[in-house]
Design goal:
This protein has helices at residues 2-5, 8-25, 30-59. It has 67 residues and is mainly α.
């Protein structure tokens, strides 16, 4: 379980969620909130997908090396 808590993908997803929730708490204007949320919607899934691809390639490395 502690290995899962060390996952950068997990913390990135949690951070993205917290940023979206924080836009309401910080009282940002509608336009600023929309810009922040749009950025999170693009950046977080892109990072998660990229890291997933890197992890998959590392798991199936034909040389058996972990990167």
């Amino acid at each position: 379980m502690s290995d899962k808590l060390k996952s950068r993908k997990l913390w990135t997803a949690i951070g993205g969620l917290l940023v979206v929730v924080a836009t309401e708490w910080l009282g940002l204007g509608v336009e600023m909130s929309t810009q922040v949320i749009d950025a999170v919607i693009v950046i977080v899934p892109s990072y998660l997908a990229g890291q997933g691809i890197v992890d998959a390639i590392a798991a199936y490395d034909p040389n058996g090396k972990k990167s």
